[in-house]
Design a protein that fits this description.
By secondary structure, the chain is α/β, with parallel strands linked by helices. Helix content is 32%, strand content 21%. The structure holds ligand 6R9.
Length: 691
């Protein structure tokens, strides 16, 4: 581990033995439950048995099935969540109220009088009981170099970093931007913030300096934690340079902590502090800040259909409880398992299922720094066999990429440790589902397609909420988690009660993990999530409820596209492109893409007098989008058009552009309402002429 190595080199920390975990991981694997792809047709109204939820079944012995427990969680949320909160979290002061909501103003509060500290819950309480249990396995970019961090070691690191932050003036409530590779340092930094009550804002380390700067400004952060460099897929990424560029644009920044990932020499300016040096001098004792249950825990920026990305706010106790409970029950996590979620910590999946959920449950969690194809397409399964992973949770886009290679890349590695497979981020198509279930999981693992969002904090729909052996159908998240009442609303804004229908996917209950606000803009929170369907939380997704009551996700209903599992607002890309002085107008839409799920398609109109060729402009635009947002946002196709289809009131008809981008010009429908229907023919011809 770099941090600990550096600490030792600096002579500050007591030398440590890296805890060798061979024995720990060889815990016997439980009998696998059979998969259900071939099980008889499931009637959604019939019931499935739940694994016991002791806090509930001890008091209510009749509640043994998923349906009865789920029903109970909706009818008696105080009793349900109150019991779980008491037994699954460690409190410094008890709460007396479980839920306290003001729907009119969209204020949701859980356990309001309670006091607790997240780092104590995620680290100290486990270090007390099992100091040598492995908390983190860092699967570094180069295969075979994994490093293990025990709960005791993690506690020491969290305290050191927390002391450094506190001593340098970071206070409770301050926002701290993290721009870090997936590493123990990143986890220690997140938890160090929680230890002193600072609010972290993790920015995915693939985002550009511009994107980092806008997030720093919006949060009013004074502190950044970064590393010298990152390594991914064998390539070096100059993190510190990106941070320098971003910080130059942000007057709020007072200090930048630079951790060591590669040890490369990087420019150190007056605000820069070597984190390794400072941490090596810091104490491993740090008294935890006593946090209110509703104190802000973190911000995470995510794309919406309009405007700049919004800082989704999660608060302390409700988020942690929901992450822990869903981690346990959606995945049937048990002590001794090795939980492998390969998401980057820059996304919500990394927050909830790499860091907070697993650590709150005292689990061993994998930090995957690499890519699915480095150094070859067997990387995931090589990692599974080397680390003895029992749960493998990834995104459909990676599966679609990998299934193009020979089966041999999967078969050559021992996957007998696997028990549960999971997918998140986009719809899991049937081909990818079968490849994952049949080939990777040998039809003996449970495959859970989990639906949720940055804003929901944790999993909301999943085929198996705590029900081993529950029949699972391919390609859909199927069933609601505890406390979640899925609702489909029609165009009239009303709830549709029947089965076999499509609608806007809403939630008709409140759950502890719901985001509390958009940072600095509560009105935007209300307008986006609460106002569209009054009385419900609106997800932005459409869904189908089949005749048996199971849910399928049909995709976004707004101008958000889902590229390789990353949310991208078309407006963000359009903003970047229109900065080019030769572009007059642009419209960006998503279109189906075999691997990425959705590709990005830019239709643009150039200014009359341009001095560059179309190729030069396109090359400039690629650079521009990459530098304003990130690599994944760069459009796959740029199409120069003479005009865009608009209504008489001047609104661009994206519906038409989506059809053209998808190669379905015959499905355009009625275009007579356009101000100038002839532009459509010109665009269709231009599209047909694309190479
Ligand atoms: C966790 C996460 C949320 C959006 C969501 C939806 C899509 C996520 C899905 C899925 C179909 C699934 N999404 N899981 N679509 N099936 N199992 O991904 O959060 O980055 O906020 O994205 O992702 O469109 O609205 P986030």
């Amino acid at each position: 581990r770099l941090l600990s190595k550096a600490l030792q080199q600096a002579g500050g920390g007591a030398p440590r033995r890296l805890y060798c975990t061979k024995g720990f991981f060889k815990s016997p694997h439980r009998a696998a439950t059979t998969s259900s792809a071939t099980s008889p047709k499931f009637d959604g109204t019939s019931d499935i048995t739940s694994t016991p939820i002791p806090e509930i079944t001890d008091a209510y012995p009749d509640l043994l099935t998923h349906r009865s427990i789920h029903q109970f969680s909706l009818e008696q949320p105080d009793e349900f969540w109150g019991r779980l909160a008491k037994s699954r979290l460690e409190w410094q002061e008890e709460f007396s109220t479980v839920t306290d909501h003001d729907f009119k103003n969209s204020h949701f509060r859980w356990f309001p009088e309670g006091k607790l500290n997240v780092s104590v819950n995620c680290v100290d309480r486990h270090a007390r009981r099992h100091p040598d249990r492995v908390a983190l396995i860092w699967e570094k970019d180069e295969p075979g170099q994994q490093e293990y961090v025990t709960y005791k070691q993690l506690q020491d690191d969290v305290c050191r970093v927390a002391n450094v932050l506190r001593d340098s003036g970071v206070k409770k409530g301050d926002r701290v931007a993290l721009y870090l590779p997936v590493s123990p340092l990143a986890v220690a930094s997140m938890l160090a913030c929680t230890r002193i009550g600072a609010i972290h804002s993790v920015v995915f380390a693939g985002f550009s300096a511009e994107a980092l700067a806008s997030r720093i400004k919006d949060a009013g952060a004074e502190t950044v934690i970064t590393a010298d460099q990152a390594v991914r897929g064998g390539k070096v990424i100059e993190l510190k340079k990106v941070v320098d560029e971003a910080v130059a644009k942000c007057s709020s920044i007072k200090r930048v902590f630079v951790g060591m990932r590669t040890g490369a020499k990087v420019n150190m300016g007056p605000k820069d502090i070597s984190l390794d040096e400072a941490a090596s001098r810091a104490s491993t004792q740090c008294s935890p800040s006593v946090q209110g249950a509703e104190d802000l825990l973190f911000l995470l920026y995510t794309s919406g259909s309009t405007g700049s990305p919004k800082g989704v706010v999660h608060s302390t106790a409700g988020y942690l409880l929901y992450a822990a409970v869903t981690h346990k029950h959606a995945f049937d996590y048990r002590d001794g398992d090795v939980f492998g979620c390969v998401a980057d910590i820059g996304w919500i999946t990394g927050h909830s299922y790499v860091v907070y959920g697993p650590l709150a449950n005292g689990a061993t969690t994998v930090l995957f720094e690499s890519t699915p194809t480095y150094p070859n397409p067997g990387r995931y399964w090589d990692t599974v066999s080397r680390l003895g992973i029992t749960h493998f949770y990834c995104a459909p886009t990676a599966l679609r990429l990998l299934l193009r290679y020979e089966d041999e890349w999967v078969q050559r590695y021992d996957r007998s440790s696997l028990r549960v497979l999971g997918s998140v981020g986009e719809p899991l198509n049937h081909e990818a589902w079968h490849w994952f279930n049949d080939l990777v999981g040998e039809k003996r693992c449970d495959l859970v397609d989990t639906w949720w969002q940055t804003e929901t904090g944790g999993i909301m729909l999943s085929p198996r909420p705590s029900s081993p052996g529950a029949p699972i159908l391919p390609g859909m998240p199927m069933r609601p988690m505890f406390g979640m009442r899925p609702v489909l609303c029609g165009t009239d804004g009303k709830e549709i009660p029947e089965n076999g229908v499509d609608g806007a996917l809403c939630v008709g209950s409140v759950w502890p993990g719901i985001a509390r606000t958009v940072y600095g803009d509560h009105k935007r929170y209300i307008d986006t999530y609460m106002a569209p369907y009054p009385g419900y939380y609106f997800s932005g997704d459409g869904a189908h409820r089949d005749k048996d009551g199971h849910y399928h996700i049909t995709g976004r209903m707004d101008d958000v596209i889902n590229v390789t599992g990353h949310r991208l607002g078309t407006a963000e890309v359009e903003d970047a492109i229109t900065e080019h002085e030769e572009v007059a107008e642009v419209a960006v839409v998503g279109y189906p893409h075999d691997v990425k799920g959705e590709g990005v398609f830019a239709f643009m109109v150039l200014k009359e007098e341009t001095h560059s060729t179309n190729e030069e402009i396109t090359a400039d635009l690629k650079k521009l989008v990459r530098s304003q947002i990130a690599g994944y946002a760069v459009p796959d196709v740029f199409l120069v058009c003479s005009g865009l289809p608009k209504t008489r009131s001047g609104k661009i008809m994206r519906r038409i552009l989506r059809k053209i981008a998808s190669g379905k010009p015959e499905e355009l429908g009625d275009i007579s309402t356009l101000a100038d229907p002839s532009v459509v023919e010109a665009i269709v011809n231009a599209h047909a002429a694309l190479p």
